[in-house]
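tool_call predict_complex ligand=nickel (II) ion
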Amino acid sequence: MGRLQDLFALLWADYSAINTQVTPIHDVLERRGETLINDHVAFRTFAYPGLDIASMAAPFVALGYKVAGKYDFPEKKLDAAHFEHPEDGWPKVFISQLRLRELSLGAQSILQGLINQIPSGFTARWDWCAGGRPWVPDFASYEALERESDYAAWMAAFGFRANHFTVLVNALKTFPDLQSLNLFLKAEGFPLNAAGGEIKGSPDIFLEQSSTLAGEADVAFRDGMHRIPGCYYEFARRFPMPDGKVFQGFNSKSADKIFESTHRRSG
Ligand code: NI
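tool_result ok
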């Protein structure tokens, strides 16, 4: 399982470099004596041959992961699937894909232009899900995409990498619930995504989630550097189902709002 460990280490190094909130959040929680467990790592991609969920999941599946849930986000024009590893200790992998054909022709043509820039051999790398952005967008295209799909704009700017890691709140010893963790994070100066309420979900769907607002990152565009929202950090509390087993899936209604954590704060 060394390869799996290496892949998650690579994804984490890249993610924590882009999201400058991650290391400070880790530090303040560890200073309280917490050990952080990852609930899931989330990826974004396109419904496009060779780039779709199945293609991106391939290295995880080759290393033992199995599909454990499928989801539809009609408003965001996304399909998603989550994968679990049969051995304890590995995070779930959540991959969503943007249904390009449901976008305007203008957005489709911008995204096709980016996909056309992918160097041959890029997706032949076993770890291309951590390969970063294999194209250079211009800022006007980013802004055009942003007006239509925040998800598409994020993909154009950041490409293939972890969109977020997620702290499993159940494994924290000094926070009885997600509310108390949220209060602590805000007091420490980390703004949370309040779209749809800070806590998405509820015990009756067996899942509560919150997330930081994506920190700003300096990103290179064809016409220079621009400061835009990067990645966010997520927090998940899971509840037991009537059969006593802790729910391991996701809920499309609450995840819909979590996707908005990469919106620009100005609106
Ligand atoms: Ni998530």
